[in-house]
Amino acid sequence: xxxxxxxAHSGTPxxxxxxxxxxxxxxxxxxxxxxxxxxxxxLYLISITIxxxxxxxxxxxxxxxxxxxxxxxxxxxxxxxxFTMHGVAMIFFFLIPSIPAVFGNFLIxxxxxxxxxxxxRLNLMSWxxxxxxxxxxxxxxALGGVDTGWTFYAPYSxxxxxSNVALTAVGIFIxxxxxxxxxxxxxxxxxxxxAPGLTWFRLPLFVWAHYATSLIQILGTPVVAISIVLVALExxxxxxxxxxxxxxxxxxxxxxxxxxxxxAVYIMILPSMGVVSEVIACFxxxxxxxxxxxxxxxxxxxxxxxxxxGHHMFTSGQSVYAGMIxxxxxxxxxxxxxxxxxxxxxxxxxxxVSYQAPMLYALGFIGLFTIGGLTGLFLATxxxxxxxxxxxxxxxxxxxxxxxxxxxxYMAAMxxxxxxxxxxxxxxxxxxxxxxxxxxxxNLTFFPQxxxxxxxxxxxxxxxPPEFQVLNxxxxxxxxxxxVGYIIPLIYLLWSLKYGPAAGANPWQAKGLEWTTxxxxxxxxxxxxxxxxxxxxxxxxxxxxxxxxxx
Amino acid sequence: MSETHxxxxxxFDDLEQQFEASTLxxxxxxxxxxxxxxxLFTGYAVYRSQYPLAFAEGSLHLDYRxxxxxxxxxxxxxxxxxxxVRSAQLGRRRSLIGFLLLTMLLGSVFLGIKVFEYSHKYxxxxxxxxxxxxxxxxxxxxxxxxxxxxxLSFYFAMTGMHALHMIIGVSVLAVLVVLAWRGRFSxxxxxxxxxxxxxxxxxxxxxxxxxxxxxxxSRS
Lengths: 551, 220
Ligand code: HEM
Ligand SMILES: [Cu+2]
Prior knowledge:
heterodimer
């Protein structure tokens, strides 16, 4: 597996400066015109961080409003806009691109021993498309915002809302193409660019997870794109498609929307699952238990995920018969998710586990994702969903999965591959501390919301009965802790760029082709195309001859 | 072979890998397109089953002869496109350019006829949202004008989206003509022509579905 010569200890004084992807050339232009998948990953990292911060500010305002039962901070119209813009920024502009566009871009070519993705210029174009979509949506926000909810239900969105629906819709429509192009690029890259000897079942599970994600991206995104077009046509040209007054049917919109947006939740979670597989194997020093099961469960999730959208519509007037079928299918999708959790746990069993920051996040993922998934089953059960639908229980459910799961995976990836991407080590003590703060803050924010929802507090209102106040204050307090937890890594990661110790090629002594290159990697990743001779995660076989320093 | 090196992108090992990658990429893109149009066809299916008579009546308001001519035009353009790809494979530059231009011409004829058809609908006051007025007499079924409105909405959304794809296709061919003119293609390297051909045939096939679904309901 280690056919490429290794040049560890880059950046140590005395050695000649080695060309890497960061120092081959400088200047804004060299970044804006780059076709290097690694630089494009960094461009995405910067852009999605901006949207993460923006979404975070909206969230802070929402939680601030909900500290008291009265509507005192913002008006109800403003509140509608806040939760809409929070959802739009976080889901479409942060979470969907997050791991694929940053780490997938950076790592997939390196993990499969390629010089770049199959279509580097398309890759750059997809970042530009993302940015243009971002500009539109940002303009819509700056010019007064949108208030339809991130779900854009018609006919409110297509006829009645007085906010910037069309502009936001255009932004999200454009953005969709960046997601499609990324997925397309990964599919072709994974099919056609693997190094000699790298068979499908030697691929890292991160790559399998991204393959499944990419399938969803190219199959689901066009459907939401056309739904958005139809909303826009109905709004601008008064075509009659969703608005009953024009002869249309609003349920059709919900079907089309959730046909994408349920699979989209797997676009958000599958890449994190890929990260967790890598991290768990590395920090247990064991091969992943049940590799083929984890690989195929990703595909199973991608396929089954397309068959369950109706669980968002149990109370919207869909037939009971349809509801029952969607309920059963939804339960089925929990099986491959559980398969993964069991296999990760089995990997930990009797491993020599160490608890560096990436591992803390990965373990956090497993616990919180499990809670999120199990509460999903409450919601998938017809009778209980009638009680829980559109309450804070749903809000807690999906935040356990998206923040507790997907963002934990994102943070794990950030810490695990930061040394590879930047050539610098981050301060481990601070990182562990931040992971703890995030874990505590997260649970304090969202656990009370399960209780609130169960007690009947509906989502999307800015006033509530006084008896809910205690739990809401807990939640707001948790949110402030969570915010601190996210700001600490922002600070120390930036700090490490300048002051962090040099990382060496393989600070975690991890397996995988990306660790056989120096950090930061050279412009074309590998000096010679590597030849792969062993499985992924061969942690129990001979160690690498060229151990870099251990952290 | 210096020629080979200029067309082989750095990330690929050889021309074959590059060819396979671009073909697979286009197929993946076409799958995306199938789902994109799939949303429209789903909506069509839902409303046609809800308002069968209105769809039949609406279809009678379209001129099937124009639709048929356009179908013929597009089928011919698929032939010329296939011949263009063939010329590219054989490295025949002149005939490649000729067939590409012919395909563009047929595509433009299609679009021209479509413009004519749309303007006709405008005069008949049948464009939803712009000047729709319920027709005074119905041709066969007396239906709720609101339902006719839905049919026409789908007619314009679907054919409009298809026409947009045609416009994109014609522009892509224009770029190929320029590249072919400059001698970019050879019997070793013709991926862009091949891939554009796939796209062109796809857009034609969409029309093959649109024509009967929109023009030929209860035409007997
Ligand atoms: C493990 C299996 C899962 C099950 C059984 C499940 C089940 C459900 C059900 C039944 C609902 C509808 C509740 C309602 O509106 O009344 C729901 C909502 C939701 N779920 Fe899940 N879910 C699962 C996994 C996920 C994942 C992986 C994500 C995201 C990464 C996610 C994100 C969401 C979101 C965003 C909503 C609410 C959408 C909205 O109305 O705004 N779920 N889930
Ligand atoms: Cu769902």
